[in-house]
């Protein structure tokens, strides 16, 4: 069993957009399907009940043609600055994700903290996934900003 602190990851990126715009992209199903998932993964569907105790699910199409469902429940909803939710995918033990949107001179810093991950190997896989997601979020935001 690995040390739980070893299985926590933090991914940060500054995106040139206001926090409210990023929060909306992270919580509105129509926007989630446009960007959620790393390169090669397509979000095929998103359902979001954005309230404490509300559920969400994301259906991702994987490069091999399989589908992966990510689901959980919102623990904290603080627009436009913070989300905390449980994270369940496949047969992995549940974990927790905190997303913070913090003012930064270049726009907003998006900070994803994923903790309670069962192992170092799962942590490393999630880190690659989150980096890819944030990359695609930044592209989505730039493509949808008004001219």
Structure description:
By secondary structure, the chain is an alpha+beta fold. Helix content is 28%, strand content 41%. α1 (19-27) packs across α2. It has helices spanning 19-27, 29-35, 120-144; strands at residues 9-15, 42-48, 55-61, 67-78, 82-89, 95-104, 107-115. The N and C termini lie far apart (51 Å). The chain has a single domain, classed as START domain (Alpha-D-Glucose-1,6-Bisphosphate, Chain A, domain 4, 2-Layer Sandwich). It has a seven-stranded antiparallel β-sheet with strand order 1-7-6-5-4-3-2.
Brief digest:
By secondary structure, the chain is of the alpha+beta class. The protein contains 3 helices and 7 strands; from the N terminus they run E-H-H-E-E-E-E-E-E-H. Helix 1 (19-27) crosses helix 2 (29-35).
Fold topology:
Blueprint: E1 9-15, H1 19-27, H2 29-35, E2 42-48, E3 55-61, E4 67-78, E5 82-89, E6 95-104, E7 107-115, H3 120-144
Antiparallel strand pairs: 1-7, 2-3, 3-4, 4-5, 5-6, 6-7
